[in-house]
Amino acid sequence: MLLDLPILKKGSFYFIKDGDTDLILEDKTKRGLVVKETSIDEKLTVKADKGMIHDMDGIGHWVPIRWYFSKDYYTLSQVMVHAEAMDQKYTKLRELTCPDDDN
Amino acid sequence: MSYAHPEVLVDTEWISNNPPNENRKLVEVDYDPVNGYEKGHINGASLIWWKRDINDPIRRDIISKKQFEALMSKNGITSDTEVILYGDFNNWFAAFVFWVFKYYGHENLKIMDGGRKKWELENKDYTTDEPQMTSTTYNAQPPDEGLRAYLYDVSRALGREDSVMVDVRSPAEFTGEITAPPEYPMEHAQRGGHIPGANNIPWATAVNDADGTFKAVEELKQNYEPKGVTPDKDVICYCRIGERSSHSWFVLKYLLGYSKVRNYDGSWTEWGNMIGNPVEK
């Protein structure tokens, strides 16, 4: 089970878990989303579990929930690059919607 | 035993054999037309997009009488047209639009039982061709407020023995475990739980799981009556944004023939966000 896998790294918005053959990067903001398909994520070109989120207009958009980086091709530090980029993206979004009063 | 108003339902086979014409319009009602109507729809069907066409573009409300008349005109519908609705998401939004049509007094109205789900299970054909509609002049009736519950109606109904509330959401929403599933991040409320005294009778208990068609009348009675949802009561249905509750409203009013059923379209996204409203978990 994915839930039981050891966590190698975690950020504000991600986990990296240690699978048998993959390093699994999970987007914490997609927690609970139903996996509707597993296919290649065109941006990161690795296999990803995807779900659908409906926007204000009701339109469904496919979103990756977790990515499977094969240990044959990726090291933890390479996966960390993607994880940190995701963390930064969500941190910026949070600052836009909930700016820190001290700033 | 048949439904109280069997004339409001048609099945997929009937639609196959009775295509739309000048006096009969087929309308697909979608929450997500990009993944529904635009990918394929029943030949001759026009589109009503719930968000764009049924909601006021600025404030939270259904469309006005004038906006409804313009929508009918655009879809080639007159007051006498037979209109058959079907759609995505288990016909939830088709039921909502059925409710709006009735609110503005349209008489000859039906739902295709099972909606897109059943049509697709039967591998029936879709097209991406959109029909050309000739605009009409449509005169709607004044709103029938007997079909709609507002916040103050719900507040007044609290604790009354002659009223009953039906919360048609999932048990997890009813207990306050979640306010909305992660698929719908725009539909959360500040508080989780339910309106005090409401019965949790999820919408899905009224349909056959296999194909989304409505259950038989005896099964439907068993679904509601033992929980005190009886024809002598004032019934108010609600969910999160009013679409699943319009599905149960349709069941109670047209399939079981209850005379006093209202849809509370403000639903939990109104009730659960209002300061001071009582909440039960």
Describe this structure in words.
The complex is a heterodimer of chains A (103) and B (281). Chain A has one domain. In chain A, strand 1 and strand 2 form a beta hairpin. A six-stranded antiparallel beta sheet of chain A has the order 1-2-3-6-5-4, with helices on one face. The termini of chain A are far apart. The model of chain A has no long low-confidence stretch (mean pLDDT 93). Chain A has one helix and six strands, in the order E-E-E-E-E-E-H. Chain A has one helix at 76-97; strands at residues 7-10, 14-18, 22-27, 37-41, 46-54, 60-70. By secondary structure, chain A is α+β, with helices and mostly antiparallel strands. Chain B has 281 residues and is α/β, with parallel strands linked by helices. Chain B has two domains: 6-143, Oxidized Rhodanese, domain 1; 146-271, 3-Layer(aba) Sandwich (Oxidized Rhodanese, domain 1), CATH 3.40.250. Chain B is built from ten helices and nine strands. In chain B, the strands form two sheets. Chain B has a five-stranded parallel beta sheet with strand order 1-5-4-2-3. The mean pLDDT of chain B is 97. Classes of the chains: A alpha+beta (103), B alpha/beta (281). Chain A binds chain B through residues 30-34, 51-60, and chain B through 30-35, 49-52, 181-186.
Notable features of this structure?
heterodimer; A: 103 residues; alpha+beta; six-stranded antiparallel β-sheet; 1 helix; globular; B: 281 residues; Oxidized Rhodanese, domain 1; 14% strand
Order of helices and strands of chain A: EEEEEEH
Output the strand order for the largest sheet of chain B.
1-5-4-2-3
Question: What proportion strand of chain B?
Answer: 5-15%
For the biggest sheet of chain A, the summary is:
6 strands, antiparallel
Percent in helix of chain B: 25-40%
Number of extended strands of chain B: 9
Tally of distinct domains of chain A? 1
| H/E element sequence of chain B | EHEEHHEHEHHEHEHEHEH
Shape of chain B: globular
Biggest sheet of chain A, strands in spatial order?
1-2-3-6-5-4
- CATH-defined topology of the largest domain in chain B: Oxidized Rhodanese, domain 1
CATH class of the largest domain in chain B: Alpha Beta
- Secondary structure tally, helices of chain B: 10
Alpha-carbon distance between the two ends of chain A? 42 Å
Tell me roughly what share of residues is in helical segments of chain A. Answer: 10-25%
When the domains of chain B are counted, the total is 2
Oligomer: heterodimer
| CATH architecture assignment name of the largest domain in chain B | 3-Layer(aba) Sandwich
Uncertain parts of chain B: none
Please give the number of β-strands of chain A.
Answer: 6
